[in-house]
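User: Show me an example of a complex going from sequences to structure tokens.

Assistant: Sure. Here are the input components:
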Amino acid sequence: MLLGWGLALSGMIRPEKVVHFLDVTGRFDPTLACVLCAAVAVTAVGYRLIARLSRRPWCVREYDPLRNRPVDAKLVVGAVLFGMGWGLAGLCPGPALADLASGSIRIVLFVAAMVVGMMTAQRIRRPVLQLGSPSPKTRGIQSEESDQRGA
Amino acid sequence: MMQIVDFTPVRGLIGGSLIGLAAVFWWLTAGRIAGISGLLGQILETRGREGLWRWCFLAGLVMGAGGWMLTQGISWSVRFPVPWPLVAVSGVLVGVGAQMASGCTSGHGVCGLARGSRRSTLVVAVFLASGMLTVFVVRHGF
């Protein structure tokens, strides 16, 4: 609830405000930078305090170990696609869900499309998108190769 | 030329701090990164009671936003800068992108940057650049 409140108060649930932030060459609204800085600062302090003071979380057995996996093409391609969608409609997953409370039909459309996108990405998984997009004909061979590499 | 519009720094800072507090609280209770796309993705993958607490988090998110807007007493109309077919397209892009990059603005942007993850920093830089480029093309390219 705190998160929803924060998002609403900061104005980040208004798509046009986000688009203004990304519009650095035109009508620019730097509010999002303030939001992000404040959020990161508070979170960073909080995480450090918890690391020092708390052994285990209140509701589950242990803290997520958070392995840092290597940077790969999938990560970068994903970030590019995400940015495109974000810039287009001015919505990322958090604010989109918060906006569901408005009951707007377009938000429902956006969230539905987002869920479809996520499920599609979960289906595809690794093999298809390793360094460049192979043509459909070679895709089978490519994925076999990458399976072996992964093993 | 660049022109600053609709800048609300104080609300931005307060709202951002609340988002930060929420992320910290989530870590303290659930021991997990507060990534919206991660939560949503896991809900889609798992069935049954496992996902219950994730549902609670998301429900709280919606109620928090809705509650605040109610107290403000202003009509809450979400205005998109683009027509609805593009809204759908960008929804798919955001979904696929967040899943592939295993995180979005909350997981990588807030939590990732806060714990100094190199991977998250890269992701944030890439999606900021790609978002800015998209807005540039859409708004000024035609």
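The lines above are the inputs; the final block is the predicted structure for all two components together. The helical segments of chain A are 2-10, 15-22, 31-53, 73-89, 93-99, 105-124, 139-150.
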